[in-house]
Amino acid sequence: MRNRFGRVVTVVGLAVMSVALAFVVSLVISPAIGQGQGSEIPRTADGRPDFSGIWQANNTANWDLQDHVARPIVSQSGVYPDVPVLAAPVLALGSIGWVPGGRGVVEGDEIPYQPWAAERKRENVDNWLDRDPELFCYLPGVPRVMYMPVPLQIFQGTSKIMIISEFANAQRTIHVDEVEQYPNEAWMGHSVGRWEGDTLVVDVNSFTPYTWFDRSGNFHSDALTVVERYTPIDRNAIQYSATIEDPKVFTRPWTISMPLYRRLEENAQLIDFRCIEMAEETLYGHLRQEPLVTRWEGQTMIVDISRKFEVGDATVYERHLSGNPPD
Q1: Which residues constitute the domain of residue 319?
Q2: HSE on the CB side for 212, CA within 13 Å?
């Protein structure tokens, strides 16, 4: 009787161990299977990676390409000279008026400015409200369009790839076929692509000197060239990099890199952002016979708005500042 009971206990124990082992194996294997299925790269009919979809960067590069701590987006000295506070134009914004701290996307975290350009960059930061092209809804240029805090959509064909940003409906076409060189300057440059294995390599040139790289005053001249690389990580992520060269502004080429993530919502789509209309009062409100915006009164403060322009001053109509070197 005792031996029979022992045999039953042994059989039950072995059965429990088998079930437990099967459960552990399923935990180990199932995620791997799921990852394999989820990481399969979508491909076009000709076997190229298919980047079609809605994508967005998830970083602070549009605020500052380099490592940075939180700081007022417009600042002035506080109680202590080295501790800035929000300046009057954005005082009412409170915590929203601060740049969020973040890790940089520049390889080596150094932007190799020439001495005159480093000084211009510092001036741009101090005069951000008057100079950043994003504030006035000018097209953001390349590579900035790729990491603005709004989604962008890629439409991929065999010989043309179109990228459309939610910001200002900014559009660019990457020509993967043979085309003539662009005869003029363009805010979004002129893009010609080629495939190196699964990586899409894009040469971009013919830029205007009026776009910036971020909200921290990083800029370029009309000699800018950009080499982009789009490499699939899996079906929902792209490794993006851009090598920037501008002999008028920088001492050597430098590179930024980051992942772009697919928006996975079922109803993901670009929403129209008509920022030209939004910036109209900022740019041209002073030209009205009766200005619409002159004063704001809240519960805790009053803000008066005064315009200052000199006769013949180009900023009466245009706010973009060339990034070319001084004459």
Answers
A1: 39-67+102-327
A2: 27
Structure tokens at 245: 């060269």
How far are the Cα atoms of 113, 132, 138, 255, 263 from residue 210, in angstroms, in the given order?
Answer: 17, 9, 9, 20, 30
90 part of a folded domain: no
Q: Quick check: 219 and 193 in contact, CB under 8 A?
A: no
19 pLDDT more than 70: no
Least confident of 26-35, 137-146, 227-236: 26-35
pLDDT confidence band for 315 (50 / 70 / 90):
low
φ, ψ dihedrals at 66, nearest 5°? -105, 170
* pLDDT over 90, % of the chain: 75
Does 146 map to a domain? yes
CB half-sphere exposure, 311, CA atoms < 13 A: 0
Q: Which of 116-120, 257-261, 286-290 has the lowest mean pLDDT?
A: 286-290
Give the closest residue to 108 by CA, choosing from 217, 250, 247, 249.
250
* 72 within domain boundaries: no
Strands 190-196 and 199-205: antiparallel
Q: Using one digit for the tens of pLDDT, what is the confidence trace for 285-314?
A: 888 888 899 999 999 999 998 888 766 666
User: What string of DSSP letters covers 306-321?
Assistant: -----TT-GGGT----
Q: What is the structure's pLDDT at 14?
A: 47
CATH code of the domain covering residue 304: 2.40.128.20
Catalogue the E-assigned strands of 235-272: 237-245, 254-262
What's the structural domain count of the chain? 1
How far apart CA 175 and CA 190 sit, in angstroms, is 9
Considering the domain boundaries, does residue 210 fall inside one? yes
Integer distance in angstroms from the first to the last C-alpha of the chain? 106
Q: What is the DSSP string of 158-216?
A: SSEEEEEESBTT-EEEEE-S--PPPSS-BTT-EEEEEEETTEEEEEEE-B-S--BSSTT
Cα distances (angstroms) measured from residue 21 to each of 31, 56, 160, 278: 16, 42, 52, 62
